[in-house]
Structures are given as C-alpha cells and as structure tokens.
Design a protein that fits this description.
This protein is an alpha/beta fold. It contains 9 helices and 6 strands; from the N terminus they run ααβαββαβααβααβα. It is globular.
Length: 272
C-alpha cells in the first residue's frame, strides 16, 4: 500500500519551535484572545479542559487548571474525559489533520466542545507570490517554501469527516506591516513558523532570488507608508461531540407549511 507523503518534517519543526521567542508569539496570542472571546459567548461552565499547543506558556495563565498537551501525531488525551478541547495554532503543520480532530472528538464527553485555531489559505499570500515569481525567474522552477494551508471551506469539511456535530468554520484576517521582506522572515523565524516542509530544498538558496523577491514584494505589496503588508488568516473550527440532547435536522418531507406560503409568494413549478 502506498503511503501518503509527509507534509511536515517534524524534527525540523521541533527545532524551529525551540528557537522561537515568547515575545514574538503574537499570532498565538491573537488566536488565544479570540478563542477566549468565543468561549465567553458559550453559556456553559467548562470543568475539565485540554489545550493542544506547541507553546504552553501562551495558555498557562489564561487557563491555569487546563491540561496542556503538545501537538504530537498521537495526542495523549484520555477518551471521553473533557468537556472542552482547544487545538491552538498547529493544525496547519499536521501530517494528519483529520486524525488530530478525531482524537479531539474522542477525548470529549458527549456534548463537549472543541475549538481549533489554525492558519488558513490566505496566510502570507504576498510572500508566496513574491518568492514564487522570483524563483521562477532565477531557477526556472518552484520549490516548496511556504506550507500549503487549507481554505476555510476545506477546513470546515474536516470537522464533518472527524464526526463533529453542529460544525462551524469562520476566519479572522490580520494585516501586519513590516519594514521589508527580511524583517518579515526574521519575525517568522522568531515565532517558529519558518519552512519545515518535508519536500523543501535542502541546498542553499541563491542570494539573488531573495533580492528579487524582496524587490517584487516592495513593488506589489507596499502600503501608503512604504511598509510591506503581510496577511495572516486565522481559521477557527468549532464542533461538538454528538449527543442526543442536541438539535437534530428535520426529516425530509416533515414540514407542516410550504415555504412559498411562509414567504407569501406564488409557487412556480419547475419543468421536468
């Protein structure tokens, strides 16, 4: 049986994260702020919480009673044990994102809540464009340089595949300004988000490629203040562990009133 190619070199990812600095984790902090805000709107008290995160320090003060687990391929969560599981800002590096979500669902008690935050498909679209066009011009080809991140529709479908009830996917876009492209790449290194793709180029990159990419970035994505714009697209996935107490869809044909009557419009039959 053919194995699915690995997306992420997990050893490289671990080394990158080990070099990350707490003062540069603004994406992790932003996602955590948004998750906390969403939890305030859920009228429920969560008594046993698990957080899956590569950066435990972001969550220790926010949820001091939560169990914090690393985002390993096999999570250490006990099944049917938690009423809230948070998967924070690491799903985009997972070699098996559906498997991660399935493990989260299995860890939940019936009617327990899961919230995941991950980088989405519009993330670093400017950097992707600049590096891609420069690499084609310099080398005549493309190599994997930025992790492929899922679009919101595809990520939402993962919730259904993982067996969650009442699935919802939405996103928040952050626009950050940088002095130049190298400043952006330095920031990515400080937050542990540099290239850890399994299929990345191992040999050194020609300096002229980065010079051309920096020029392309400046020419196409400068702001009015001559700084460079960088987009970070954070997608939030929310789902519940199935339970009989939850709202269920009506059976087809069980409606007691026609939609045309409710809208007070004439009903026009469709041709066969």
């Amino acid at each position: 049986m053919t194995q699915t190619p690995k997306l992420t070199d997990t050893n490289a990812l671990r080394l990158h994260r080990d070099r990350a600095r707490a003062s540069s984790l603004f994406l992790q902090e932003s996602a955590a702020d948004e998750i906390e805000h969403r939890l305030l709107m859920v009228k429920r008290e969560f008594t046993k919480i698990a957080v899956i995160t590569p950066f435990a320090e972001v969550w220790r003060q926010r949820l001091p009673n939560a169990e914090i687990w690393p985002d390993e391929e096999t999570l250490g969560l006990e099944t049917v044990s938690f009423d809230l599981v948070i998967h924070s800002m690491s799903l985009h590096w997972s070699n098996d994102p559906v498997g991660q979500l399935i493990q989260c669902r299995r860890a939940l008690k019936p009617d327990g809540l899961m919230i995941a935050a991950t980088l989405g498909g519009q993330t670093l679209q400017e950097l992707r464009s600049a590096l891609g066009s420069a690499e084609i011009a310099v080398t005549g080809g493309l190599s994997p340089r930025v992790a492929p991140m899922g679009e919101i529709r595809d990520l939402g479908a993962l919730l259904q595949r993982a067996g969650f009830a009442l699935p919802v996917a939405d996103s928040v876009s952050l626009s950050v300004e940088y002095r130049d492209m190298m400043h952006l790449m330095h920031d990515l290194r400080q937050m542990g988000e540099t290239n850890a793709l399994e299929q990345r180029q191992r040999r050194s990159t020609p300096r002229r490629l980065f010079d051309l990419a920096a020029e392309t970035y400046k020419n196409n994505f400068s702001t009015d203040t001559e700084r460079l714009k960088a987009t970070f697209d954070i997608v939030f996935l929310t789902g519940w562990a199935p339970d009989d107490s939850q709202q269920q869809p009506l059976r087809p044909g069980s409606a007691k009133q026609r939609l045309a009557d409710a809208l007070k419009v004439p009903e026009v039959p469709l041709r066969d």
